[in-house]
């Protein structure tokens, strides 16, 4: 070893001990004839003191930032202690040192507040990884992984590796494919998830499976998507939905405890998908704060339900009259917003990303009066009644959006989150879990006038609705009335876990009967031949004693980023790709050799 | 949950308890009016007893092999206990049962000695995985993984994920490549190992890294090779070879302890590559037994060294006189081999796989006499002297091979292993570790008259030989005398761990200086431009304070198979591929859609 101790290890108790450290030069400070060096490694920073006697050697081989240094000497208790670092009580009085490697001046500073831009830091990722901020993220990631493995091990789960070179069965997202040299003209695909394999493992009786595993999706990358990402992938036999919910809220609570020191003792809230959509406008609500949506046109679905609301807004205001949906949100403590502020909010909802035509507000003044942008259409009593219906208190500001159903709901959800952000209600150190349940099994695809699986084709309908599915044809005779088709009402035995407004995991109880699985494939437009080609192995497996089973997969990158209080998953991946799917450090992807094309028996067919 | 207990859990202490089990029907046995069913799950087998009252229901829905069954009833202590299984003291007297799923008759029996052939079992891998023999292998694999993670965690290693979509830099083995849709004409490669990434993590100061990670090599598959395989991949900072050897023999000993219950307290033997080649004829000797090679032409290298041997064989026997190499092995206790047996051995060495012209033997009879196939060339005294030189005892059989150096050495190694196998010396339950050290850094490539890296281009020469490497040109002026080139004698700071004659791990201390790395690349025939294109990021990283570092990678599949006492890694992989790289269960690889070709902007270019 080049060292006897790490740079985070020495304390007063080591006083007078002869030790050797090795690490990176963080700073060099010269005071008259003596030199202080902060030496850094993964474990910490230790101050080195070079006395005058070493000056000749220091002059001959001067130290610079990020040099790799080995130093031997005696541990000395400092008179001038630094309480901010664990090694702050001591320093090393160097008797000998050796430069193990030099360093050019880094293109950016290796500090929490670095001066490096995003592109530069990605190109020199190996330097960016030295920064404490990034290191802390990867340490957290490791801790989350370890906590996960321990919990699952204690609960009898087995880590079983599934293959990476599989078969392309594009359903939804695109597969990455891999040409096979040994089977010319044929391709492997990289797995979008180990879904079918984990189900086969259940058929094989492995009872409880898990894997922390890379998955691949060739999607157009939005901000914060990666073509390769990591899942905590789990599956259990002989379980019902309730068993899965209990097991995996246990997992997340354990991670909170192990990684963040948080005792999450509260019951994890549960909400149906319908409730989430009506009350929060989206299927992964952030429930760290209230500000639920009050639907003024469909009062039966609002919370608390106010049957009389819709009559309240009925009046002369054409915008509300004509709108498919009118949604109000009571924003606490904002009644004194200035004209400038409400104008700015109006502009905010009119941005193309939000796409509303305008914003109506009611100020619930502290003195009990009400003031609104639609004063001329509604009396103060009516304004008061509307405001009260939304649950607003004196001092609150009621914001109202009106328009087409889906857009208005989405905009309301965005507005709610934006206001919470502005009001400091989205605290990264507060964690609130939620199960969203009872998703629709199918979504309607207008273009093809057909059903698509909302979760995936292996998700079971609610047990009570299996008959409905088996006994009805999936064909949609009348596109305009697709909502009346029996399939439109079928709910899935599926569940998402939501943390602070982010879906961190999702899963379902699976279909385990061949007949039902075939019906599902048929409902999605797959004929027998296609079913056999793509999923013959799974249908076959279901013939040989498939047990009831279900599972869940957590987005590991996302889970880590939320626990780390960050918006970006990239900060929690050692070597991430940029939004064009490129690794700018490696400069990949790249061209390949003619010999490789030749061996693979493929060639380029570039559009231009 | 469909069950209150597992099928491996119930004991006498559960007597009279009402329980529900779920699992697979292993056997159904009818005795008069009662029926016994063995119900199986991952955890064990429990006997179910169906009394006469259930006969009507059993007749209406008869049970078959591999049916999925849920049964509720009372635990009963058996009068007729089965001591062979942990649940053998009890049975479940069934009061209610439900068939959760039926099963077709499996294409082979789900038993340790199955009647299924290899192809059938691979096609129905999900059924093969139900067999206890296969399950035990995957459980062992999981235990090895868990033991590894625990040991490395306790030693401050961090699991850090490295990317799968990287850049193709073919060196040695072929890369699998992945066309990038978002970057048309460009390809990712799947990693052959995370080598450069783990080195970058050391440059980044992560100090101790590990990963249990899939790697990919597009090689022509020999028996028991897989295109995707798993490595335990490790790297450490500020270490010398000795530190790595200590740390990782510690890992393997820990695995022995955790997984096999074996206290491997012996010192792990060490041997140089030269010693291995001279004394065992190969670089991964099985040292569970002796029978070292005695080189009769280069006695200085034999063990024990017998300076006078070469004069012993000098004589009238032209075969020995003309041979480049003559190697003898003393086979214990085989002096009474019949003519038939020695003839058969002669045929064995003449097989094309071995390729020798013949076999000479000396029988060291129990009565002290010597009898040989070359009696007419050597006196009994000479035979005795030769036999003694090989270390043979009375009762042993000395086998002698002669021929060209490399072939004879290889054949001797094969013969040694074959004789050990025949004599039962290769016991799967005996484990013997060995470090092989001091490999040559370079191998000579005759075709290109150039050097290739024996390990990989990142391996450091011995510290004392760095100067030799830096100060000499790699150019080989005189191909015939390449052995005289200074590079031929450079040894690598590399090490292999050998277990029972299998290389289970290998690694090296790495180059960490840009100048030396460039010299290495140049020695392998890479010009500056190619170096920059392929490894510019690594050369760049070495400019910013790269620390001394080194590491190792273990072949996880192989390690598991040896610990499991098997020759085949396939038995330890949940979903392996066959020798043509095919997954016969999935029927992958397979053709892809025209749309996929179109999006990827590639097309086939089949040779015929």
Strand-residue proportion of chain A:
15-25%
Number of self-contained structural domains of chain A: 4
Largest sheet of chain A: 8 strands, mixed
What is the SS-derived class of chain A? alpha+beta
Give the radius of gyration of chain A: 30 Å
Q: Which regions of chain A contain 5 or more consecutive residues with pLDDT less than 50?
A: none
Question: What distance lies between the first and last C-alpha atoms of chain A, to the nearest angstrom?
Answer: 56 Å
- The assigned CATH architecture of the largest domain in chain A is 2-Layer Sandwich
CATH topology of the largest domain in chain A: BirA Bifunctional Protein, domain 2
User: Which quaternary structure do these chains form?
Assistant: homodimer
Largest interface, counted by CB within 8 Å of the partner chain's CB: A-B, 128 and 128 residues
Instruction: Assign a percent range to the helix content of chain A.
Output: 25-40%
Total E-strand runs of chain A: 23
- The geometry of chain A reads as globular
